[in-house]
Pyridoxine 5'-phosphate synthase (Hymenobacter mucosus), 241 residues
Amino acid sequence: MTKLSVNINKIATLRNARGHNRPNLLQAARDCEQFGAQGITVHPRPDERHIRYQDVRDLKAVVTTELNVEGNPTPDFLDLVREVRPEQVTLVPDAPDAITSNAGWDTVQHQAYLQQVVADLKAIGCRVSIFLDPDLDMVRAAATTGTDRIEFYTEDYARRYPTSPEEAIRPYREAAELAQELNLGLNAGHDLDLDNLAYLHRNLPGLAEVSIGHALICDALYLGLENTIQLYRRQLTDTQS
Ligand SMILES: CC(=O)[C@@H](O)[C@H](O)COP(=O)(O)O
Ligand SMILES: NCC(=O)COP(=O)(O)O
């Protein structure tokens, strides 16, 4: 079964636009779970333009499924996750001024550093996932870091899917097969939506979890949050495959 973790960054973006507490992020997390989300993902960025560090602390007390905290393991980020101890930490190599995540790790170049961070986080009970492009060398090097999982950065898949689904999925499928051989758990995320999700799910062996935010929250404006989460869940059922 592939789990759906709903990324609520964009709920915080909307809240921060007015500086008050509407929409209420904690209530939104509770509601997502009640509507069928099997996890809540947040990506606190250094400028706190959407998720604030305090939100992560508050969410830990509220989320009953699984809290996944994404980010670049800067000293501040590591202090935060050491304090909060979310169920999963996803390491993302994004620059402080990045508009959004735009690349996976170079696990060859940063192998020793990642080994140290992964060991540190596993020692406090967090599952660790490393954000990665579907590159076989990067998958092999990720396995040597001791990480539990990798998360495929799916922007390239999403961009190519409308014109050629087969071409779009090929590198991801090959990398997923290698991940299985290496006993690495597999997550995926970025730009997944109601058009491209079922095909990804059908074609990636061992896909444990997808985290989806931007498109899902956009869809919810038209379809409602409960209905939208159910629609995304349906893309991940095996009968769809
Ligand atoms: C790692 C990843 O792909 C997501 O966290 C994505 O970057 C969403 O972050 P933003 O909501 O800040 O764009
Ligand atoms: N890890 C990916 C994620 O959390 C959501 O990415 P997106 O759906 O907002 O592009």
User: Anything to note?
Assistant: The mean pLDDT is 97. The chain has one domain: 3-240.
